Structures are given as structure tokens and as C-alpha cells.
Amino acid sequence: MAQTPTTFPVPETVPTGTTLSIQSSPNLGIATQALKQGFESAYDGTTVEVEVTSSDDALRALLADQIDLAAIGRPLTAAEAKEELVTVPLERAKIAIIIGPENPFIGNLTFDQFARMFRGEITDWSEVGGPPGPIRFVDRPENSDVRRSLSQYEVFRNAPFQTGATADPVAEDDTATVIAALGRDGISYAIAPQVLGQSGVKIVPMHQTLPDDPRYPYSQPRFFVFKGSPSPAVAAFLGYATSAQGVAALATDQPVEVPAIAATPATPAPTPTAAPPPAEPVAPTAAEGRGGLGWWWLFPLAGLAGLVWA
After folding, report:
1. How far apart (Å, rounded) are the C-alpha atoms in residues 272 and 286?
2. The whole model's pTM is what?
3. Do residues 204 and 106 lie in contact, with contact meaning Cβ atoms separated by under 8 Å?
């Protein structure tokens, strides 16, 4: 049955000439490449081919017997779960909120503020404590696994999951493309391992926490998927991928390569106008006023964000 937990032993040896084909979603592509290199180094004479595509396309190829494994960043749909597909869950990846290095915003955001930025309800940086200036929300394609993961949180389910007039979508679900589009006024989101330690972005704290904090809420599920009974090659690779060595490779920072970007010209000073009022005036608590964390932060942030997926 699909979704049945499956474990695989680490192989002592793998026959020379073993080959394996994998299609991976963009946000697992770098991690899958790292596993490919580790597997081929550990077992001489093996070859793992990795192609980056969407989770949807990878699963279609798997069902058509065109590949051996799919690496996806979402759960199976109800229809997919009825097929002969077996998922092997991997560690979830945190989702970071990112802005460009030249963006003057230095504060943090709440769950509600980011959701309202996504929907285009908050349109100016001054509404979240930054210098006055328009917000541009750099969004990913609708079939993006990271985007789909955000849609499962309660704060995004309280209103239609759609962007507003501030949206500036990129054509490809590619973190390097997203980073290149940020400029001085953009904000977006990305898988944390691809942006941690990345000089081309700044990571915005959520409720004073960063993605390397266990309490940080937003994350994306990740799975390997095979069809039917695993072949010896699939079983060997999954044994390596789920071993301590494989898990370490998945957890390692995997910053994407971003082409050098010319410095963005300074935005002309706006004509003095009254700053737009906060979209939802709320008196700050004493802890928020000090920039600190109240006692209630002892509770897991994930619960506050309200994840719908189990």
C-alpha cells in the first residue's frame, strides 16, 4: 500500500554496473545530487542519473516505468496514493523567508504579516516596521512544492490562497532565479538548506526565530517514491540515503549558485506622504516592544502556525 513505512538496510556491497535513474523536484535536486555522489563513491562501478523536474512530472515518469525513483517535496495526492506507489519519508526541510542583501528591512515578521504580504494585503515595508517603500512579492509557480507546503498552514487557509497586486512571479521553480529577482524591495521564500550561508540573501526571522531554530514553524515534507516492489538497485540506494551518512548529506547546507548581480540603483526618495496605516492595528505586548520573546514562546511555533498536513 502507498504510504506504508519502509526501511532498508545499508548494503555492504553493490554489484558493479548497477544503474539507477531518479527524477527530482527542484528543491530536492541538490540533495539528491549529493546522495548520488556519495553512493557512487561508496560503491565503485555504480551510476546514478539525476534529472531535475517537477514532482508531478517525476511521479508521471515513475508510473510510466521511465525511471526507478522519484524525489518529491509533497505528499501523494489521493489519486496517486491509489497507485502502486510507495513513499519513503525523509527529514522535512525548513522554509526560509528571504529578502535581497540590499533590502533595508532589518526586522522580523509574524505568521499573519507574511501571509498578508503573500495575499497583497500588506503593500508597504513601513507597515511591518521597515522604511517606507513598496513591497514586491516574488512568488513561485503554482506547481511549486514549497508554495504548496505554505498553503497547508492555517494562516494561509483563512483566506483564498492567491497572491495580490504586489506579486511578481518567476517562471521557474528555481531558488537561484528567485534570489536574482529579489532586488531591494522583494520578499520571497525558499528551502532553508539552499539559502543558509548564502551571501546573496538575507533571511527574515519569523517571530524572532530563524530556520535553524527547532521551534521555527514552516517546513516542507520530502519523500523518495518507488513503484511496486523495490529493485535491488532501488533498495541499495534507499539503504544508503536513509543511513546516518545519507541523512547527514540531506541535512547539510546546500546553497544554490547565484550569478553575480549588479548592484541595484538606489530607489528615488518618494514624495513625502503620510505612511499607510497598519492593516490590522494591534497594541504591542511588553515583550514585543522590547524585541524579546514572551513566556508563551516555550510552546512550539509549529502549533501556532497551524500545519494541516500530518
Report:
1. 31
2. 0.79
3. no
